[in-house]
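Holo prediction — adenosine monophosphate.
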Amino acid sequence: MGKPGAGKGTQATRLLDYYQLKHISTGNVYRDEISKRSLIGIEAEKYIKKGELVPDDLTNDIVREILCRKDYPNGFMLDGYPRTETQAIALNQMLASLGLALTACINVDVSDDILLNRMAGRRVCSTCNATYHIHFHPSVIPGVCDVCGSALIQRADDLEESVLNRLRIYNNKTRPLLNFYQKQGLLQVVDGTRATDEVFADITKRLGEPNHGNDQIEPRN
Ligand code: ADP
Ligand code: AMP
């Protein structure tokens, strides 16, 4: 969890690799659907361009479909979902019906002035979704993705008007979820104003060593 631009995607990329998790980013799903010009993408684009949330039913259906695949032997990381109380309740129902539970809810906490700077400088790969920043995390060749060589672009929703709308919506609809997860004893608040490596070290310290599916009990001699 975290405001737009807090560093969720940046940390998710590293945590996925470290813990060998499946990444479930509703924002990435929508951006992929938009680039394919699918029906879902065309519908979602209307909201995303303005910095509004895509309707809950559509978003919940997407996550349900992904979770039902059960192709995550070491678990999964939700990034940018849930963002409303309706989504959080739907997620709890999905997890209960699949016999799963969340390990933690990590909130990457950053003040608004830092976020505006981060989003203004954010560049993303048009093909693989890798994220860069023109000052804090530049690509080796400007404008070219280090991972796949495709062009880097600025997200349409990172323009100022849309950013301010996203922050307003975060405060109204998403921030209350912190309380929802605190009551469940799952909330971990991490100071996201520090360098990427420090934030990563803090999160992994809280979550512990990866166990890559080796949680079987060793037989005793
Ligand atoms: P979110 O997924 O929360 O919207 P991102 O991970 O895309 O945020 O990060 C937003 C921007 O800030 C990106 O350009 C990213 O490279 C940069 N960024 C992320 N974490 C840090 C950090 N700890 N310090 C400086 N810049 C960061
Ligand atoms: P993100 O990449 O997570 O910042 O998401 C980009 C945009 O996609 C958001 O501003 C929303 O318009 C839309 N979106 C992503 N996730 C959700 C969600 N869980 N609920 C509603 N809309 C979402």
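READOUT: Residues 4, 26-27, 30, 47-48, 51-54, 59, 80-81, 83, 87, 157, 166 surround adenosine monophosphate (ligand 2) (CB under 6 Å).
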